[in-house]
């Protein structure tokens, strides 16, 4: 057996066993609540959000903060979030491509993956020099991931910022300043490390038997990766990658420390300090981040569910999992 | 004509010597069944034959060409040897028809249209015309294994290797896979089958090889091996599986 990083994926719902009818047999002695049952898991989330909104209006009602002010200052459209979103999307996209080679090396580098995996040598390369090369690459990739995961994002951002400041302080590219590019580079460096680990988990979770099947058909190592391991692996890591996107988006708040006026910087400087309304500023921020992140995660969950291949990939975590039902 | 010839094949995993000087000859159109206790090296022998794992020493000839040779690309060899696995090993992200097409398009370099035509044809042959667009998880074990057979057959292999093709199946699905294999045998396909399905072995096999501790102890016709086994160990094993 190969060691897989991810636990076996639940796939009971899509076996050829038909799902139990909505009004099917219920577990005896259990009362069904409104939150239960397939297709309605969002009720819990919606209820929580409604609670949050109620608390928000209550706090406004007792005068803790000024709701009309918030509604007035709440920018129409994405406004100041544009910088945050732009930086996040760019960094995430660059990171996605940079993470692929890292993940491949981390997943398949040394032959530790499996005793039987390679008739040739790791990554399909042959010979001693290739072996040394693969080991070196593995070391570099592992070190990179360790550094990224082992240090605070803020430290990484400041480090990159000062490197830019001391080398290219007056850089202007596509109308953006040195600080912007420093922020983009730092965010990319950061998310690359995390995405690489998510992808590595996906690649390693692809069953060995799939590779055997490809090899038995005469497919090359590269073909098997491109046609089997990659498409399956990506499906396995859709949700971890979505989480990483959200995480990157939140990390982008730290870019305000290097003078980038993204969402957080905007709220802090113009609303909190300039207008003197810190509480309102951060309420506005909360609304912004929540709205964007919930939209993103709901859309991805939706797409994932719609485009799901039976028997492959994880269910959205908030879907209640029915116990496995065996065909009679 | 000898399609598959194995000479003095040896394979070890660390200190474990799994195959000892194995010799094997499979003629064109012949069906050879390999039986033997668990751990005797049957799967390893098949995997060395199609070079999924490299033999330590010995020779494998396919149509007279030595194939375990550094000058020969293993991909080229595997393309000509169909393999059916115990656990089906269908590509889980592809429908039945795309499972069959993958090798045609990327290994045989057929254009997608003709690859699809061929894939549909092969699936029809194993009785799965109505399951073209089903994903493996939507198929029963028997159906999955038939797709796997179609996938291997589509590559027009010179010989088909089956490694316990029915032992992962629920009993009610075994016959449909054996039927497909029997049909294949009657069509003249050269086959090496690791299986303890006695009915199939007696009916379809031309020869039975008994393997034990990494050696082929005895080889003969089904009657010889099942009814008058020469070797003590064969006798004991056959007694056990015939029960
Ligand atoms: N990749 C491997 N690494 C180490 N040992 C292995 C490996 N593959 C097989 N073996 C060992 O080699 C021996 C032969 O295994 P093999 O799978 O060929 O037996 P088999 O005859 O097919 O058995 P079964 O009927 O259980 O499938 C076993 O002892 C097994 O543990
Ligand atoms: Mg076996």
Report on the structure:
The complex is a heterodimer of chains A (328) and B (243). In chain A, 62% of the residues lie in helices and 1% in strands. By secondary structure, chain A is mainly alpha-helical. Chain A has a domain at 89-257: MetI-like fold (Orthogonal Bundle), CATH 1.10.3720. In chain A, strands 1-2 form a two-stranded antiparallel ribbon. In chain A, a hairpin with a 2-residue loop joins strand 1 and strand 2 (176-177). In chain A, helix 4 crosses helix 6, helix 5 crosses helix 6 and helix 6 (178-205) packs across helix 8. Chain B is globular and about 55 Å long. Chain B is built from 9 helices and 10 strands. In chain B, helix 3 crosses helix 4 (112-125), helix 3 runs parallel beside helix 5 (141-154) and helix 5 (141-154) packs parallel to helix 6. The mean pLDDT of chain B is 92. Helix content of chain B is 38%, strand content 26%. By secondary structure, chain B is of the alpha/beta class. In chain B, the strands form 2 sheets. Chain B has a 6-stranded mixed sheet, sandwiched between helices. In chain B, strands 2-1-4-5 form a 4-stranded antiparallel sheet, with helices on one face. Classes of the chains: A mainly alpha (328), B alpha/beta (243). The A-B interface holds A 11, 14-16, 115-116, 119, 207, 209-210, 212-220, 223, 227-228, 231-232, 235, 309-312 and B 13, 50-54, 74-83, 85, 87, 89-93, 102-103, 106-107, 135-140, 151-152, 155. The structure holds adenosine-5'-triphosphate and magnesium ion (MG). The site of magnesium ion (MG) has 4 residues of chain B, from helix 1. Magnesium ion binds next to helix 1 of chain B.
